[in-house]
Design a protein that fits this description.
There is one protein chain. By secondary structure, the chain is α+β, with helices and mostly antiparallel strands. The protein has a domain of about 90 residues: GMP Synthetase, Chain A, domain 3 (2-Layer Sandwich). About 30% of the residues lie in helices and about 20% in strands. The protein is globular, with a radius of gyration of 14 Å. It starts with a helix and ends in a 17-residue tail after the last strand. Keywords: Signal.
Length: about 140
């Protein structure tokens, strides 16, 4: 049951989020966008429900860290660490927008399960790609 939720999180959410994130305008001609710029421009994605019942609950900025908060059905995080959830979402995000971290913005994925918040690690680079499975 856990793997479908993580896969849903990694693959269903990621096509939308990088596209929205890329719309963040630089405040000045050569200034890089900040986490606040990304958060402001990504608000339209809040409330979206993805495969497996994963819901994007909030997008905010804390200093220069973009914070995504997700929730899912009761028990969806069982057996997963905050780093597992972060790696799934950020890894998928990096698959379509690998240049995101070049702006100097970091990212954190927080998650709720049964009204309990788990804060993810602050990520400053794309995680290593998962090894290919032989077929």
């Amino acid at each position: 049951m856990l793997k479908p939720f993580i896969l849903a999180l990694a693959f269903a959410a990621t096509p939308v989020l990088p596209a929205v994130a890329q719309t963040a305008p630089a405040p000045a001609a050569q200034a890089k966008p900040t986490a606040a710029d990304f958060a402001k421009n990504m608000q339209g994605a809040v409330g979206q429900t993805f495969e497996g019942g994963i819901v994007l609950k909030a997008i905010a900025a804390e200093a220069n860290t973009l914070v995504l908060t997700v929730d899912g059905p009761k028990g969806w995080r069982t057996g997963l660490t905050p780093a597992d959830i972060s790696n799934a979402l950020v890894g998928g995000f990096c698959g379509t927008a690998p240049q995101f971290f070049e702006t100097g913005v970091s990212m954190r994925v927080d998650s709720f399960d049964d009204a309990k918040l788990a804060k993810g690690p602050v990520v400053t680079t794309c995680p290593p790609a998962a090894p290919a499975t032989p077929q």
